[in-house]
User: What shape does this take?
Amino acid sequence: MSQSELAIDATILDCHKVQLENTKYYVYSIKVILHSGETHVIYRRFRQFNGLLLHLERRFPLEAGKVNPQDRILPTVPGKIIFGRSAKREVAERRLPLLDRYVRELLSLHRKISQCDLIQSFLRQNKEDYDLHKQFSHSLTEHFALRNQAGSSPKLARRKPEATTAASRRRVSEPTIGVHTESLLKLISTNAKRDSDSEEEIDYSYEDFVRVINYHYNGCVNEIEINSEFFYKPKFEDLFFLISQRIGKFEITLNYIDYEGDLIAIMSDEELDIMIEELAQGNGEKSYEIPWQIYVTDLGDFSSYNTDIIS
Assistant: This one.
């Protein structure tokens, strides 16, 4: 590939519903700017973003934090969300600013990563992109018109992500995606009484102790009690530290299983909120009435993840 053909910037434009004979799904339109100044539009499914992330983590283990989680600089994609068929458009729209930030951060990395064949081929236009662009070019024209009137994309303006630095990425992404099927730890929150042994790990300033996390490891079951404040407003770093301290191991990943049976990594407060919201939406009940199902896994093995990439 010549220098002029390198992708140097990309912007998520919109999401579009694709209807085939036996399936329906959403794709994201991405405006790609090349080094030559030329632009083109490509269309990618959410699973392709996930697939790209997993392939990058295999190619660049140091930058993925596999050796030392503190060294992670690779950005992460948002967690998978399932709200039911009637809300798939809403789910796709919620991902727009997060995916936009993801592709921009990828291209801002050192050229060893940003110019590698994995990223450049992901952003390269193919025949399917041409076909989809014929179908969606009219809606994109309307999209640009609205953006010019408002000064920015109305969809991207709905939810402005916080500025992200390499340091903040390391902080919220310490446990990179990984799993070891022989040491799967299962955590379930249920109603329980207070356990005084937990006081060293979390400040129990509330008298209303309503939940306990049970984790299953090597055939043994242990409990971690949490207070109402932690349960209703959980923080990823607190949850990660609490579980890691109890099992005596920090080389882990927190995950949940979505309603399609896929194992999804939790790497930030936002993705923890998504998990809780998905539980509530999927069951048609209030989130605090649904037991958490959190799976803690070891780093470095991708065997339990769906890594398919649609080319």
